[in-house]
Write a structure and sequence with these properties.
Strand order of the largest sheet: 13-12-11-14-10-15
Strand content: 15-25%
Distance between the termini: 22 Å
Number of helices: 11
CATH topology of the largest domain: L-amino peptidase D-ALA esterase/amidase
CATH architecture of the largest domain: 4-Layer Sandwich
CATH class of the largest domain: Alpha Beta
Order of helices and strands: EEEHEHEHHEEEHEHEHHHEEEHEEH
Helix content: 25-40%
Shape: globular
Length: 407
């Protein structure tokens, strides 16, 4: 079972102007739900961010193009097939599925954004999508979040949803989001898909700014295995349905409250992805303080979070502090003085003055390492910057899950 998570969904607050439908189109070999439609009321504004992988999937390329042309009326999401590394036929297939949905909804093809997740390098079974569309459309409901969540999962063990009603400048605002991801997780972005919607009134430019800032500190601060997916995407849509003044001023209290709420939702979803990391048994925060810059702190944090030796030691609950120190040392910081830093497991100082802390005992380290949630804190003592990256351990199951992924 994922670290600190269960199959139980939180109370879900539907968002006015958002309708979801899902069905099993037999794209997945196991016959589970694999086709999802999210329809957005007219006037909805959407911002999105996508993978930086140069081998990006056909739906990513097409979604970018469509979003640059028009505001979306619907998202078309399939799991079980990534439609990645499929060349020009992949783009043709992605556009055809968008056209079919556009015809059903009476909108232009550019108003449909495609998203896919699953096995790379296999042709998208578009006939199955065409046959599944009527059922998914017939199932549309403002309350169909659980069904939609099930439809975007691949190797995920548990669903990942967050739903909040918050006060913004005196108005009740609903924010509901879901994400999928378990392996192939690493910036930029963290294979993940994320869809967050709100009924708030927000201008397009502030919606885009809010998304970029939230993703930077959430989905782009997690790593499971160091593999950046071909299909990553995250959207933030505002249906404008609340009777409130439109948020247009970045310095306003309303925007600050809105941005904080979105950041909390996305950070929680990002943590869920790590907690459900393939085979994960530990949730690990790597906090780096006292760096000369954000970039410097992230170099150190990623060196530790991505180290197979650190991650396997975490799985074994082995306080092998030398592996952490070695990872810090190879992070590539200019003129790093190892003798000036400290490393902590929780509140236990394990490294000081370039080696094992004089007061440290193996029993102290073992106590921390046996916990499910572990903090690795690194004090560089060479500046004022701080950054945190979240990761998980490597277990036997990670190899098993990925070795058997296509079977």
């Amino acid at each position: 079972m994922p670290v600190g998570l269960s199959n139980e969904l939180p109370p879900i607050h539907p968002v006015a102007g958002v309708y979801l439908g899902a069905t099993a189109a037999k794209i997945k070999k196991n016959g589970k739900t694999d086709l999802v439609i999210i329809e957005l009321v007219g006037g909805t504004k959407t911002a999105a961010t996508f993978t930086t992988n140069a081998a990006c999937a056909a739906p990513v390329t097409l979604a970018k193009a469509h979003l640059n042309s028009k505001q979306p009326h619907a998202f078309l999401i399939n799991s079980g097939n990534a439609n990645a590394a499929t060349g020009e036929p992949g783009l043709v297939n992605a556009r055809q599925t968008c056209q079919w949905l556009a015809d059903e909804l009476g909108c232009s093809v550019e108003e449909v954004l495609p998203f896919s997740t699953g096995v790379i390098g296999e042709p998208l079974p578009i006939q199955k999508i065409q046959q599944g569309l009527p059922d998914a459309l017939a199932n549309r409901s403002i309350n169909a979040w659980p069904q939609a969540m099930a439809g975007i999962m691949t190797t995920d063990i548990v669903p990942k949803m967050v739903s909040r009603v918050v006060k913004i400048d005196g108005h009740d605002i609903t924010i509901t989001g879901m994400a999928k991801g378990s392996g192939m997780i690493h910036p930029n972005m963290a294979t993940m898909l994320g869809f967050v919607v709100t009924d708030a009134k927000v201008s397009q430019n502030l919606l885009e700014q809010c998304l970029q800032q939230a993703v930077k500190k959430s989905f782009n601060r997690i790593t499971v295995d160091g593999d950046t997916s071909t299909n990553d995407a995250c959207t933030l849509s505002a249906t404008q349905q609340v009777d409130m003044p439109t948020i247009t001023d970045v310095n306003s209290t309303a925007y600050q409250q809105f941005a904080e709420a979105i950041n909390h939702v996305m950070t929680e979803l990002a943590h869920m992805i790590v907690r459900d990391g393939e085979g994960a048994t530990k949730f690990i925060a790597v906090e780096v303080n006292g760096g000369q810059s954000e970039e410097e702190c992230l170099k150190v944090a990623h060196a530790v979070a991505l180290s197979p030796l650190v991650k396997t030691a975490m799985f074994a609950s082995d306080p092998n502090w030398g592996r952490i120190l070695a990872a810090v040392g190879r992070a590539g910081l200019v003129d790093l003085d190892i003798n000036q830093l400290q490393i902590y497991l929780g509140d236990v100082c394990i490294v000081n003055n370039g080696g094992r802390a004089s007061e440290y005992t193996e029993e102290q380290g073992q106590t921390v390492m046996k916990q499910e949630d572990i903090l690795v804190r690194i004090e560089l003592n060479r500046g004022v910057a701080s950054e945190t990256v979240w990761t998980c351990d490597f277990s036997y199951d990670y190899v098993k899950i990925n070795a058997e992924y296509r079977s």
